[in-house]
Design a protein that fits this description.
heterodimer, A: mainly alpha, two-stranded antiparallel ribbon, 7% strand, B: mainly alpha, 6 helices, 0% strand
Chain lengths: 60, 137
C-alpha cells in the first residue's frame, strides 16, 4: 500500500493503518526515547502519542 | 507544497518525506519538554534523608535547604521579582551575586561572548530594580 493511502486511512481512524505507520517509525521513536543511553519507557509512550497526534494533524 | 522542486521523486515519496520531517520536529520538541520536566523535578526532590535519625535533625530546615536557591529568598519583593526571570537569567544572577563567579568564566560556560554576559547581567539588574520599584539590591 502506498504511504499516502496509508496515511489517509490512519487519519480516518483505521487501527491497522496506524499500526503499520507506528511500526514504520518505531526505530525513530526508540532513538528519541533514549536518555543517557537508557530507554525511558514513559518518554517512549509520550512519543507514540505524539506520532498519533501528528497523523491527525498533518495536512496532505 | 512546491512540487517542481522534487521532480525526481514521486508524489508519494514527497509526502512521506514531509511527514517524516514533521514527525521528527514534534518528537524532538516532546523529548526536550520531557527532559526539562525531569530536570525540574530533580531540582525539587534533591533531599538528603541520611541523617534523619539524629536528634538535632530539623526536618523543616533540611527541607528548606533542599529547595532551589531562588525559593529560599526571604525578601518577598525580591522573591517575586526573581521568580519571573528565566532559568538562564536566574543562573547568571545567582552565579554573579552569590557564587561570585567572574563574568569571563560565565561567558565561557554559557557559550556567550563576554560582552553579551555583561549586557545580560545589567538587563537582569534593571529588570529586578523595575519590578521591586526602585528598592536597592
Amino acid at each position: 500500500m502506498k504511504f499516502e493511502e496509508l496515511l489517509i486511512c490512519a487519519k480516518l481512524g483505521d487501527d491497522n493503518a496506524r499500526q503499520q505507520i507506528l511500526e514504520m517509525y518505531r526505530p525513530m521513536l526508540l532513538k528519541a526515547s533514549l536518555i543517557n543511553g537508557i530507554l525511558d519507557e514513559d518518554l517512549y509512550q509520550e512519543e507514540c502519542l505524539t506520532l498519533m497526534k501528528c497523523i491527525e494533524q498533518f495536512v496532505i | 507544497m512546491v512540487w517542481k522542486k522534487y521532480e525526481d521523486q514521486t508524489r508519494d515519496e514527497v509526502i512521506q518525506n514531509y511527514f517524516t520531517a514533521y514527525l521528527a520536529t514534534a518528537v524532538g520538541r516532546k523529548r526536550a519538554a520531557y527532559i526539562d520536566k525531569l530536570n525540574y523535578l530533580r531540582n525539587f526532590v534533591s533531599f538528603d534523608f541520611s541523617n534523619m535519625e539524629d536528634e538535632s535533625f530539623d526536618l523543616e530546615e533540611a527541607a528548606f535547604n533542599s529547595l532551589p536557591i531562588h525559593l529560599r529568598l526571604e525578601n518577598e519583593r525580591l522573591f517575586l521579582a526573581v521568580t519571573e526571570l528565566s532559568e538562564r537569567e536566574k543562573y547568571i544572577f545567582f552565579q554573579r551575586v552569590l557564587g561570585e563567579m567572574s563574568l569571563n568564566d560565565m561567558a565561557a560556560e554559557l557559550g556567550m561572548s563576554y560582552q553579551a554576559v555583561v549586557v545580560a547581567y545589567h538587563r537582569i539588574i534593571q529588570k529586578l530594580r523595575k519590578r521591586m520599584q526602585g528598592e536597592s539590591i
